[in-house]
Amino acid sequence: MSRVVHYMNQFFAGLGGEDTAGTPPESRPGPVGPGRKLQELLGDEHELVATVFCGDDYAAGEPGAVDEIVRLVQEAEPDLVVAGPAFTSGRYGLACGRVAAAVAKAGIPVVASMHADNPGLEEAVPAPVVASGEAARRMGPSLETLAGAARALLGGEELTAENGRIGAVPRLSRVSDRNAATRAVELALARLGGDQEATEVPLPRFDHVAPAAPVADPGHVTVAILTEGALVPDDNPGRLESARATRWLRYPLEGVDALAPGEWRSVHGGFSTTWANEDPHRILPLDVARELEREGRIGTLFPAYLVTAGNGTSVGNARRFGIEWAADLHHSEVRAAVLTST
Amino acid sequence: MGAPRIVPTRGIPYPAGDPSLAPAHEKAWRRRLVERALEAVSTPVKQPTVFEVD
What we know:
The structure holds two protein chains of two kinds. Chain A is α/β, with parallel strands linked by helices. In chain A, 31% of the residues lie in helices and 19% in strands. Chain A contains ten helices and 14 strands. The radius of gyration of chain A is 23 Å and the shape is globular. The longest helix of chain B has 19 residues, at 23-41. By secondary structure, chain B is mostly helical. Chain B has a two-stranded parallel ribbon. In chain B, strand 1, helix 1 and strand 2 form a beta-alpha-beta unit. The radius of gyration of chain B is 12 Å and the shape is elongated. Classes of the chains: A alpha/beta, B mainly alpha. The A-B interface holds A 206, 208-218, 223, 227, 229, 270-276, 278-279, 281-285, 287-289, 291-292, 297-298, 336-342 and B 1-5, 9, 12-17, 19, 26-27, 30-31, 33-35, 37-38, 41-47, 49.
């Protein structure tokens, strides 16, 4: 009998929605929520021995959350770990992707389930991901795909598109029986024949952002100021990169009413920073935001700002920053944000 | 850009300023930008929408 451990978020574990999104990770014996159906589909020879769950905000935003989750997973001594289905949920997908990647690096077989548009897909590498539907109403078929993939992995098979596998497959060297010239001409002919999809190098997909609902009155809520203009304390203590950023940083604004030249600078590598360094408010409008706060036009100015360098940033990292910022700000009860874009 | 609410500004190196203006005028311009951004976050939108500053 093989031992399977299931990772899911607080919502599917039955704890609640946004109000419980800060819940730290926890482990329970046996299947929970959608895990019960998954156990049925896995059959008698595989036992879902434990369910590890964590709040979406905690999993996506708390440093060390993934390590805590993986420790709980390992305590259950799994032969296989399954994560999700996360559908198109951003924070949940990121958590599933990161947990799957960390579990795979620990040498434990793992598969995650999410929709192809979920940003967690890129985080899962090198772990395999299989497709789920867009939303929980597709739970049934999504669990069937996941269970099929789990059985295949436990049977020692590699997952392929036939198992529903999606996303980047680690690149392996392989000898093709047709040389590059032949393949290039075949692709050109396919395109001339009307095939718009055929490629050997799939490009990242750009998705649609659903606008947030408006706030009734900024004078009654916490408002944050953010920037991708790479404005940091003069010695750049967090070592923000000037291009192709892999990180974002948070710097306190508590008790700061203005950004003095010489104490702050932009490390952005994509434009001349002369004007930004002469007056840092040209990047981060703290001076007028404080005025508006004093006048009651802004309820409370969030006492920190979030910053990255928006310069040749990969789509994957940019989506991750967006989800992490949203989780961080939501958790801090920020209800509106003004992000300056260079 | 995909951002749902956009306030256009005057240049990539100074999204919250305009170095061609005298300091007091530049600050007034910055204030109008942030005021417009506060109006934008209070306005329902269905797709990417530009909130020009008059």
